[in-house]
Amino acid sequence: MKAIEINIKIRLKADNELDEVEKDLIEKAKQATFRSYAPYSNFSVGASLMLDNGKTITGSNQENCAYPSGLCAERTTMFYANSRFPDQKITALAIAARDTTGEFTKMPISPCGACRQVFIEVFHRQKAPFKVFLYGTEGTYIIDSPLDLMPISFDSSYL
Ligand code: THU
């Protein structure tokens, strides 16, 4: 039997170590949590992303009384960006969340599997990686590529 080892680099930054782009996108993701529609889970997620042209776009989770009809903040934001600006590459995405206490999570928020699959599609579509910033009050994970969040993934080459 052979073992396959996968090495992934995730940097953990304290607030005072964030650069200007990281700070700006994280702040926008935090603000977006206040526009979340989450009456069922009371878990408010915000996302913000930057396009190649410097424009930023924000979104939040949008729930539904028929639970599976809702959508996560990450996909709401990415689908909006790709539908409005299909030729602009996404260069970075930040995510923040407030839990049922209304406070920002201590640990960085972790995107769900379905959102990671969409990150991978965006990566292949734009033929370029984008950074992912996962915010928590105790530190932010800085990830250089969506591949690091899903190193083994399904893509269109299998079809
Ligand atoms: N949610 C997101 O928007 N993003 C994530 O990364 C994880 C979960 C949403 C889905 C649902 O509205 C609520 O958080 C609780 O799962």
Average pLDDT, rounded to a whole number, is: 97
Which strand order do you get reading across the main beta sheet?
1-6-5-4-2-3
| SSE string, helices as H and strands as E | EHEEHEHEE
Rg over CA atoms, rounded to whole Å, is: 16 Å
Point out poorly predicted stretches.
none
CATH arch. level architecture: 3-Layer(aba) Sandwich
What structural class should be given to the helix and strand makeup?
A: alpha+beta
By CATH, the topology is: Cytidine Deaminase, domain 2
| 3D shape | globular
Helix content: 25-40%
Proportion of β residues? Answer: 15-25%
DSSP summary: helix tally: 3
Largest sheet: 6 strands, mixed
How many angstroms does the end-to-end distance come to? 28 Å
Question: What is the number of E strands?
Answer: 6
List of distinct ligands in this structure: tetrahydrodeoxyuridine
Count of spatially separate domains: 1
Name given to the CATH homologous superfamily: Cytidine Deaminase, domain 2
Q: Can you identify the CATH class?
A: Alpha Beta
